[in-house]
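Problem statement: downstream parser choked on a complex file, so we are re-checking the raw output for the S-adenosylmethionine run. The parser issue turned out to be on our end (a line-ending mismatch), but while we're here, posting the original submission so the record is complete.
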Amino acid sequence: MVNQQFVETDHAQIYSAHRPDVPPEIAQKSVNFLREKFDGDLDIAVDVGCGSGQSSVILTPFFRLVYGLDASEAQIQEAVKNRAYSNIHYRLQEAESLPFETCSVQLVTACASLHWFNLEVFFSEVRRILVPGGVLVAYTYHSLRPFFDCPLKKKMADSLYDQIYEELYPYWPKEVHSSLEKYKNVQFPFEESRRIPDVCQFFNGRFSDLIGFVESLSAFQIMKKSDISKADNFISRFGLRLKELLEVPDEQDSKMIKLYRDFYCIMCRKE
Ligand SMILES: C[S@@+](CC[C@H](N)C(=O)[O-])C[C@H]1O[C@@H](n2cnc3c(N)ncnc32)[C@H](O)[C@@H]1O
């Protein structure tokens, strides 16, 4: 059965607004890996668990067609609304049943989604649809944080984030633990498998992006469902301490802040 996370429209809207597009560098590294042993046309890439499209759009410069598949209708609606491209098709579709012909796809990606799938069934579908030499790329990330050059501020930010992730920990659905462990115990379906060095993405954002990111986490959504006043209290305590740290004036959200997140990425190749 497909999990019930991400099915609600307000969660999908927060997700779409506060989860930035993933770094194009990951698409480039995926294509480089594919090209090491595959020299045919780059016809189809499939992004499974595409959410609101942030991990699908980066594939568009490389492939004739990109399919973004997700089990949540609300997420697909956000993708169609906010990240439409002429060569992307978004579809409501579960990872365990991939609607492609055998040996027809060059690349399958799963960004921050692999841990939600029934891996035995998903991997067998990936094995079926990939061309020989085709590639599966699974990658994930856990937090979006402000970047500080000043070591003291960095220490304070790390300690604040350690604290909020500790508070959220009991609320993570069990599936997320595999992602938090960087998929270290996942048995990938192909023998040739490579973990690439972490990719760190920097970009400019606002205080509200940092708050929105935490609100988009499934652990926070579960805390909110189980005890709304606890969730309100959690987010306002976090907001106050973050404002102090970032020196953001109370009345506005215009200050641009340097933000970063780290991606953990595994690539493997069908024989
Ligand atoms: C954390 S989001 C990642 C979204 C996007 N890839 C990104 O990086 O922003 C995980 C997504 O996986 C989807 N998902 C969970 N289980 C799924 C399944 N069995 N089949 C397809 N999608 C699934 C959820 O609906 C959700 O949109």
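For whoever reads this later: The chain has one domain: 9-270.
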